Fold this sequence. Notes:
The complex is a heterodimer.
Chain A: E1 4-12, E2 18-27, E3 32-36, H1 43-50, E4 58-63, E5 66-67, H2 72-77, E6 79-82, H3 94-104, H4 109-122, H5 138-150, E7 156-160, H6 168-183, E8 187-192, H7 195-201, E9 204-209, E10 212-218, H8 219-224, E11 228-235, E12 249-254, E13 257-263, H9 269-277, E14 282-287, H10 291-307
Parallel strand pairs in A: 3-8, 3-9, 6-7, 7-8
Antiparallel strand pairs in A: 1-2, 1-4, 4-5, 9-10, 11-13, 11-14, 12-13
Chain B: H1 4-20, H2 22-25, H3 27-48, E1 50-51, E2 54-55, H4 56-86, H5 90-95, H6 100-126, H7 137-161, H8 167-185, H9 194-200, H10 204-217, H11 224-248
Antiparallel strand pairs in B: 1-2
The structure holds adenosine-5'-diphosphate and magnesium ion (MG).
Magnesium ion is lined by residues 43-44, 84, 160 of chain A.
Amino acid sequence: MNALSISNLKKTYNNGFEALKGIDLEVKPGDFFALLGPNGAGKSTTIGIISSLVNQSSGSVSIFGHDLKTERSLAKSCLGLVPQEVNFNQFDTVKSIVFNQAGYYGTPRKLALQRTEHCLKQMDLWDKRDTISRRLSGGMKRRVMIARAMVHAPRLLILDEPTAGVDIEIRRSMWKMMEEVNQQGTTIILTTHYLEEAESLCRNIAIIDQGRIVENTDMASLLARLHVDHFVLDLAEPLAQAPVIAGYQIERIADKVLDVAVPKEIGLNYLFNQLSEKNIKVVSLKNKSNRLEQLFMSLIDTKSAGNK
Amino acid sequence: MNYSIAFRTIVTKEIFRFVRIWPQTLLPPAITTALYFLIFGKLIGGRIGEINGATYMDYIVPGIILMSVISHSYANVVSSFYSTKFQRNIEELLVAPVPNWVILSGYVSGGIIRGLLVGTVVASISLLFSDIEVKNPYVALSIMILTATLFSLAGFINAVLAESFDDISIIPNFILTPLSYLGGVFYSVKMLPDIWQSISLGNPILYMINAFRYGLIGVTDVDIQLAFIMTIVFILVLTLLSLFLLYKGIGIKN
Ligand SMILES: Nc1ncnc2c1ncn2[C@@H]1O[C@H](COP(=O)(O)OP(=O)(O)O)[C@@H](O)[C@H]1O
Ligand SMILES: [Mg+2]
């Protein structure tokens, strides 16, 4: 049984816009799954339908074997949602937001208090339990939503861009928290704009663009297909323009910084030979970590070029 | 599945909400109605004499109590549910396994409780000015609860359909308040010219106020049974409409 299966899901909004054009997706129990796509691709729409916030136009969704149409209550009980935008009552305290959510899921008071405490501690928010949520920082608000989503111990946790707009340090600590939650057995689906986030956390990945799934595979084989590496070179002397070297794509990002796309089959030796010949001294070199982003862009380019 | 915990959670949250902001929710009706009793009942009423065998003060007490019940049960649900929708925390209920009828009954119960609480506050203040002996307590209590239910439902529908904060003040200001004043709070419709009497009989609030007045002081301009039937029918219609709006997700789902 899948944690999530979606088949031929379509959505046309009231204004006639077709946001989903037939999505198929399967997520296995225990997985850490990434749903990736540019802005407006349909990620939030898909998640909205899974979590009963958006009415679907056609297709079917089931969560741990419970069909969303015929067994809605059971399906809902298996799911925890962390939405993209803050959506709790800003005038409530952190604790009451999480505690009330447990109540909506029918959790008896005593257990609800225990679960609230557990989730707030796990999200490092126990000290803030009596704070009015409006006063929290952006990162804390996200964590309140994670605690709220986990208070009924869902088997599937869906996070819609959970780390958008939080600074790098907090993002890292949220990654750790999500990894822990996943290790404790909760299936996680994540959408994100930070592609390195998907790369470092997720085992399987689907890429969505213009309402269609354009790629659905495991992270390792996706990365293996990568054939271009990006490097940033720091130079000793400033350059007026980027050098031209056959086989490489070189861009000048600053006076003394170059960005070089290196095809794997050519490698770096030839590049450095050519740079020495042109009397360009390289001080240091680093691998740019947006490999997935490159892949992602190239995938979308080829697929949508094929559609036209 | 057992939804009593979800229901209780919504109701408790609703009660906390209006109690927390009591200077906005419970204090104003106490002050306004004390002024009504003082000015209309005591100062002016003293010169008016009796209506249908009751002193003017006794005559206006039931209407003023019920008017507060109407406006506060309505206001509670319309503002609470609209802000829930506006801040999008309605989504907390939509993702959870809470059926629409539980959402509706939770919010409506919040409105009823606020309405009855304000009604009790106003009734207690009226005791300072008049010493009514309640004639038919069951009639009074049941029409008060039914009225609170009806206007909580109306407030709910208003909140679902509202798209801005303006939309949640239009109906209270331009429909509810005038209909309450014209519903015979301060006068008997029998005092009006024939044509205005007939028009007044199209005002549902008139029936509720008279039924409540009958419950408190035993005086009415209309048939009590008709008043109950009418209120119950309205409640049924608005309940079905509310459930339909929730089912369709109007205003809360795309
Ligand atoms: N309520 C709506 N009405 C009409 N179009 C919408 C609505 N919500 C989203 N869309 C459109 O649907 C598309 C997908 O949106 P969304 O699912 O939010 O994308 P993502 O989360 O991947 O950024 C976008 O083009 C967006 O403009
Ligand atoms: Mg989105």
